[in-house]
Every structure is written in structure tokens, then in C-alpha cells.
Amino acid sequence: MTVLDSHQDAFGHTNNVSYLEWLEKAAWSHSEALGLNIAAYYDLGCGCVVRKHELNYCLPSYVGEELAIGTWISANDGKLSTTRDYQIIRLHDNKTILTGRTHFVTVDMQTGKAKRMPPEFIRAYVPVT
């Protein structure tokens, strides 16, 4: 990711909303690489929705800086909950500028109510240890 003017806030550094958008894109890219895109969610009748985000802003980033965004599954209870971790590194000095975690709950795609995760989620969303 390259930080653009449009990512900056009134303080002259990257806006927290930009970081959250980047994390969402990384999460979907990872999920799709695991074979679970939004179409698969609808086919299974089950999806993952955010219950809570935890974001730790370690250092600022500025226009023109190149960032690497990593994400992985850190927990899956095999029932209702999955946890995804994130790290954003500023490439010119290899400094971590953000760490984060998102807690997901599995829901029925039609009703939005909590639903036990299907075997496809258990197989795909394996925690990295």
C-alpha cells in the first residue's frame, strides 16, 4: 500500500479510517485466498461479522510511504468465534506502525443471528501458531 494524499487527516498523517479500510481489504483478500469469498458465504448461508476491533497505533505514516500489510487467523473456536490479527510495517525502515485484532462472530446470512460455523470455516480459518 502506498499512502496517498486522500489517506491523510487534518494532522498531516494517515487517518485511522484509512487503516481500518486497508485491514478490511487485507482480510477479504486473505479470506478469498482461503476459498471463502462473499459468494461462498452466501452459498453456505453463513458469514463472519465484526464483533470488535482492537487497533494499536504504534507510529504515524505519511504521504508517499510504502506499507506492507499482513494478516492471519490467530484463533478459531470451531463454533462461533474467529480472531484475525494484523500488522502494518513501514517498508523504508521496517518499523511496525500498527498492530490490530478483529474478533468475528459467525452469523446466518439471512437473519443476521449467530449461527454455528460450517465445516468449511473450520477447515479454512485455521489459526497460525
Structural features:
129 residues; alpha+beta; Thiol Ester Dehydrase, Chain A; four-stranded antiparallel β-sheet; 24% helix; 36% strand; elongated
Task: Please describe what this structure looks like.
The structure is a single chain. The chain is α+β, with helices and mostly antiparallel strands and 129 residues long. The chain has one domain (5-124): Hotdog Thioesterase (Thiol Ester Dehydrase, Chain A, Roll). 24% of the residues lie in helices and 36% in strands. It has helices spanning 16-33, 38-44, 119-124, and strands at 46-57, 67-76, 81-90, 95-108. A four-stranded antiparallel beta sheet has the order 1-4-3-2, with helices on one face. The two termini are 26 Å apart. The model has no long low-confidence stretch (mean pLDDT 97).
Radius of gyration: 16 Å
**Average pLDDT for all residues:** 97
Range of helix content:
10-25%
Strand order of the largest sheet: 1-4-3-2
* Strand count: 4
Oligomer: single chain
Poorly predicted ranges (pLDDT <50, ≥5 residues)? none
User: What is the CA-CA span between the terminal residues?
Assistant: 26 Å
Give the overall shape. elongated
Biggest sheet overview: 4 strands, antiparallel
Helix-strand sequence = HHEEEEH
Number of helical segments? Answer: 3
Query: CATH first level: which class?
Result: Alpha Beta
